Amino acid sequence: QITLKESGPTLVKPTQTLTLTCTFSGFSLSTNAVGVGWIRQPPGKALEWLAFIYWDDDKQYSPSLKSRLTITKDTSKNQVVLTMTNMDPVDTGTYFCAHGSGWLMDVWGKGTTVTVSS
Amino acid sequence: ENVLTQSPGTLSLSPGASASLSCRASQGVGNNYLAWYQQKPGQAPRLLIYNASSRATGIPDRFSGSGSGTDFTLTVSRLEPEDFAVYYCQQYATSPWTFGQGTKVELK
Predict the structure, then answer these.
(1) Distance CA A46, CA A98 (A)
(2) Optimal mutation site among A104, A107, A112, A113, interface B, most CBs of chain B within 10 A
(3) Contact B92 A63 (CB under 8 A)
(4) Which positions of chain B have pLDDT values less than 70?
(5) B103-107 and B10-13 beta bridge pairing
(6) Beta strand extents in chain A (DSSP E only)
(7) Which of A1, A91, A101, B28 is most buried (most C-beta within 10 Å)?
(8) A3 vs A45: CA distance, rounded Å
(9) Which residue from B98, B67, B69, B63 is spatially nearest to B83, judged by alpha carbons?
(10) Considering just the CA atoms, what is the radius of gyration of chain A in Å?
(11) Which residues 27-86 of B have a C-beta within 8 angstroms of A?
């Protein structure tokens, strides 16, 4: 059974760096064609894809956020970490990680809520 | 990027009715790599359909997907009370992956 859980701060100040961790079980990020993606959702708004890391360390980023995002994996710990620099109140929302089967994000974590406020 | 436009924004229907949700892409979706997700308040999205027409594991057969190229449809037959939710389409053929803005299916 594949499960994922997001963790990180619930409150960050503007200009700070956000670090989120996705801890997963039921699969390995060293397996061919497996990946993990990050998606966010502002309150009451639509989903927005942020980043994806593939089993071979290939990384994809949203062009509009690429300069602020870094995605890394720790295969031994079954974790994927997303950092987002220079946080702004518009970055407030729920952040999800998801298992990628190929490029399809088929199993999602429950999400973690992040508020950006001074 | 491939912009996905969903219509209508809201569907007001009664239990037992059928829902037809549209997702139109600004560019062709390669290999029909188009997914549909259902999201209920306070929950994560749940994968319903992938590759435009394949049902995900455990999804009832009242959910069906169709379409190719730039025009895709999610049909929910015989709406059950638990089907009232927001539905998103998403393409995973080309980076950046993109989502539609969502269609809310609400109780009439």
Answers:
(1) 16
(2) A104
(3) no
(4) none
(5) parallel
(6) 3-7, 11-12, 18-25, 34-41, 48-54, 59-61, 69-74, 79-84, 93-101, 104-108, 112-116
(7) A91
(8) 25
(9) B63
(10) 13
(11) 33, 35, 37, 39, 43-47, 50, 56
DSSP label of A30: T
pLDDT of res. A93: 98
Asked if the Cβ–Cβ distance from B96 to A62 is below 8 Å, we say: yes
Whether the ω angle into residue B96 lies within 30 degrees of 0, i.e. cis, is yes
Q: How confident is the prediction along chain A (118 residues), in pLDDT tens digits per residue? A: 999 999 999 999 999 999 999 999 999 999 999 999 999 999 999 999 999 999 999 999 999 999 999 999 999 999 999 999 999 999 999 999 999 998 999 999 999 999 999 9
Both tokens assigned to A113: 């809520």
Two tokens, residue B87: 């539905």
| 3-state secondary structure (DSSP) of residue A66 | helix
Contact residues on chain A for B45, CB-CB shorter than 8 A: 47, 96, 108
